[in-house]
Amino acid sequence: MKERIAKDLLSIGAVFLRPEEPFTWASGIKSPIYCDNRLTLTAPAVRSDIENGLAELIRTLYPDVEVLMGTSTAGIAHAAITGHILGLPMGYVRSGNKDHGRQNRIEGRLEPGQKVVVVEDLISTGGSVLEVVSALREAGADVLGIVSIFTYGMAKGLRRMAEAGVENHSLTDFDTVTRVAAAEGYIRPEDVERLIAFRNDPSDESWITAR
């Protein structure tokens, strides 16, 4: 599955690798990768692979799940489609409470004690998805885990997940995408080591000049 999803994401430019001309993140970090999984929603064949893949992860890993909760905003559509496949209710968690109406942060019905799986599009350092987990736990949910399309596998994200006592399971990851990209000709084989160096320590930009 990891290789199939990696090929899907590369084929539609949802994951785009450009080691010779790095992108700049909002934090200022130089990155060889641009990731926009929203593009999967407008590619029906890829979307089908992803939603069926997420459904299979949930069936296998979390058979007792009662509700899916998407992250706002990127995880909402994936939670909805996967919920439809599985015949499960879904909702989503806002980044903050609404400033009007009932001032909800969690949208959709959630009862205390219900078993929840969080659906996210990608995981980097884990900060935003763990805020969602925290909000759900405060509302009384039993968060079984997280499923996502793509993860960088960064040490900071892995450490945060462990500290929060929650696991993420992704359809594919940075290492797989990098390996497939080299095999398919998106990048040079000699770039793989450079990109893994970025993954290991994004703040160390020595990978940019390494050849």
Distance between the termini: 31 Å
What strand order characterises the main sheet? 7-6-5-8-9-10
Query: Topology as H/E string?
Result: HEEEEHEHEEEHEHEHHH
Shape descriptor reads globular
Structural class: alpha/beta
Low-confidence stretches: none
* Main sheet overview: 6 strands, mixed
Q: Round the mean pLDDT to the nearest integer and report it.
A: 93
Strand segment tally = 10
Number of helices: 8
- Portion of residues within helices: 40-55%
Q: What percentage of the residues does DSSP assign to strands (E)? A: 15-25%
- Radius of gyration of CA atoms, rounded to a whole number: 18 Å
List keywords for this structure.
single chain, 41% helix, 8 helices, 10 strands, 211 residues, alpha/beta
List the topology elements.
Blueprint (H helix, E strand, L loop, with lengths): L1 H10 L3 E3 L5 E2 L5 E2 L1 E3 L8 H18 L5 E5 L4 H11 L3 E4 L12 E2 L7 E9 L3 H12 L3 E10 L3 H10 L3 E6 H11 L6 H10 L5 H4 L2
Parallel strand pairs: 5-6, 5-8, 8-9, 9-10
Antiparallel strand pairs: 1-4, 2-3, 6-7
Helix pairs in contact: 1-6, 2-3, 6-7
